[in-house]
Amino acid sequence: MAQTELYWDHHIPLPKLGAVQAKVTVAVVALLCFINSYDGEFVFDDSEAIVNNKDLKPVTPLSNIWRNDFWGSNLSSNSSHKSYRPLTVLTFRLNYLIAGGLHPVGFHVLNIILHAVISVLMIDVFAILIGGLDYDEKSWTVNHAPKTSLLAAIFFAAHPVHTESVAGVVGRADLLCALFFQLSFLTYCKAFNKGKESNARFSVQWVVVSLALCGAAMLCKEQGITVLLSEILRTGLLKRLGLMSLGGLSMLYARWRIMGTGPPAFTEVDNPASFEENIFIRIVNYNYYYSLNAWLLLCPWWLCFDWSMGCVPLIKSATDWRVVWLLLLWCVLIGLVSQALCSPDSQRRRTLTFGLVLLVVPFLPACNIFFRVGFVVAERVLYLSSAGYCLLLAYSLGQCCYRWIKYKVLFRCALRSHQWRSEQSLFSSALSVCPLNAKVHYNVGKNLADRGNTTAAVKYYREAVRLHPNYVHAMNNLGNILKEQNELSEAEQLLSKAVAVQPDFAAAWMNLGIVQNSLRKFEAAEESYWNALRYRRKYPDCYYNLGRLYADQNRHVDALNAWRNATMLKPDHSLAWNNMVILLDNTGNLGQAELIGREALKLLPNDHTIMFSLANVLGKLQKYKESESFFLHALRIKPNAASCHGNLAVLYHRWGKLELAKKHYELSLKLDPEAPGTRDNYNMLLTKLELFCKKNV
C-alpha cells in the first residue's frame, strides 16, 4: 500500500512542515475562518432542533433521545422526518447542561472546535489516500505527500461551503458524522500494520472497531454509513470484504427498522424535481442539481440558507440553456474518471481515484437516486464531499493560482461565517442569491416582524405569497399583521385561503377565528376555533380565544370552561387565569374570583396582572390589608403601572387613608394623565379633604 514520495509534491509553494506544525497551521486556519460566529444567535433550523426541542431539557427522560428524531418528534409519528441522530442530540443536551440553559455561545464554540479537529485529521486522511499507508521503523505512519495533504487540508479548513455546518448549530450533525467517518477510516487503516520484522498483518479487531465508529457516525447523521463504501472500495481480500459488507448491511437493516412507519413524507415545494412525472425531466433536473452542488464547491460565492420554493426553477425542456451546465459537469467527470482508470502514471491514478471516491460516495444519500430527499440543494451535505474536492483541487492546482485562491477563499469564508451570526444577516444575504425563493422572503419578513418592524415585514410576506400563492405560513403571518393593523377583511381572505389550502393548519384556523370575532361574525368564529381544536387537541391559546368569544357573547359559563381548559393544558397561561378572575369579579362572584386568583398565584407567584386583579377583588370584599399587600407587591414588580397606582388609591380612599390615597392618585395621573375615572376620583378626594380640614378648623 506504500508509495514513494510524490514527484509533484515539492512543486507546491508551501514550506515542508513537521507533522505537528502542519496540524497546528490547519487548526489555526480553521479557527480564524469561523471564530467570528462564536457569539452568534440560534438561527433558522436551530429554533426547531434546539430552542423548541424538549429532548435537550434535563426534565425530559434521557431515553427519549433514543425514541425521537432529531427535531424531538416521535419516530413512529407520520410527521417525523425520520432523521435519527441521538448522539448529536446528546451533545446538544450536554451543551444545555453545562451552560445551564439555551446560551448559544457554548453551542457555537463546540462546533468551531469540532471543525478544527476534523480539518487537522484531514491531513492524515489525505496523506493515506494520496501517498498510501506506510510505516517507519518505529511503526509511525509516513506521509509521502506532506505539502499536498497540507494544502488540501487548508482548503478544507477554509472552504466557505462549510459555513452552514459550522456556524449553524444544527450543523453539529454533519461535523460529528465527519469526525466519526474519519476515525472509522483511520482505524480501518490500522488493520493493515506493516511492521519491520513481519509481513503485512490484518487485524480483525481493528475492523470491528472501525465498524463501531461507523455505527457512531450513523447515529450522528445518516450519511455516516458511506464510510463503509469508501473502505470497501479499498478492500481486496474476500474476508475483509465480507466482514465490512455484513456490518454495513446490519446497520442499514437496523436503521430501517428504527424508521418505524417508513420513509419521511416531503412536499413538492421541498424537492419539485422528485415529483415530476416525466422521468426524463426528473433525471435532467437531478443532474442539474448535481452541477449546482459542483459549482458551490468550485465557486462558493452564491451561498444561501435555503434553495427550495422556486429558488431553482425546473428545467422543462432540452432547449433550456441550463442543460449546458450538466453536460459540462459530466464531461469533467468523465475526463477525471478516464484519467483515474487509464493514466500511465500510477500516482495520478491513485490520487484521482480516491479523490473521486471521497467526493462522490458521501454525496450518494443526497442524490435522490435511492430515495427522495427533502431539499433541492443543501450546502451542509457537501461537508464531507468537499474533502474529495479539496484533494482534487490540491492535486490540480499545485502552485498555479495558489495565492489568489488562498486569500479569496479565506475572505469569503470569514464573510459567510459572519452572515450566519444572526438571522437578520443570514436571511438578507439570501435575497441576492435566491430572489425567486418564497421561503427567503418569508424568513426576512418573519425576522422583521419579530423585531417589531411589521410595516416592512408586510412587503416581504406579500412577495412570498406572490412567488408561491399557496404558501400557507406566509398567508397566516401576513393575516396576523393585517389583523393588528385593523385590515380585517383582507386578513380574513388570506386566512380563509390558508385553511382551504391546508385544512389541518390549526394556527390559521385559530387566527381566522380571532379575525371573525373582531368582525362580529360570532358563529363563523366559533366554528373556526373548534376546527383548530379538532386538528390540535392540546391548544391552550385556542381555548383562551374561544373563551374571549364566549365572553363577548355573555356566555359566561362557557367562557370560564374554555379558560379553565386553557389553564389545564398550560398551567402558566396568565391571560386565561386573569380573565377568569376579571369575569367572576364583573359578575359579582367575588368569593369564587378570590379562590381562582389565589390558585393562579400559587402557579404564577410573580405575575403582577393576577395580583392586580386579585387585589381588586379583595378590596371589594373589604379585605383591605390583604388587598393593599397585593397592590404593593404588584407595584414592586412593575412600579410604573398607572392603573395599579390608581386602584390602590381607590382602596385607600375607601379605607379612609386619605393622604395615601392622594399620593397614589397623583402618581397615577403623573404616569397617565388620561387614566379613565382617576381624575374624577382625585377631585372627589380633594373635596373630601377640604371639608375635613374645615371641620377641624
Automatic annotation (TrEMBL):
Record GO biological process: endoplasmic reticulum unfolded protein response
TPR-type repeats, residues: 438-471, 472-505, 506-539, 540-573, 642-675
Membrane topology: Multi-pass membrane protein
Key word Transferase present: yes
Any GO MF annotation of the entry: dolichyl-phosphate-mannose-protein mannosyltransferase activity
Primary subcellular site in the record, as a coarse category: endoplasmic reticulum
Residues passing through the membrane, by range: 112-133, 286-303, 323-342, 354-375, 381-402
Top EC category: transferase
PROSITE patterns: TPR (PS50005)
GO cellular component, one term: membrane
Top-level taxonomic group: Eukaryota
Compartments it resides in: Endoplasmic reticulum; Membrane
Keywords: Endoplasmic reticulum, Membrane, Repeat, TPR repeat, Transferase, Transmembrane, Transmembrane helix
Assigned EC number: 2.4.1.109
Keyword Manganese: no
All residue ranges annotated as the DUF1736 domain in the record: 262-334
Family label: Belongs to the TMTC family.
Protein name: dolichyl-phosphate-mannose--protein mannosyltransferase
Provenance organism: Poecilia mexicana
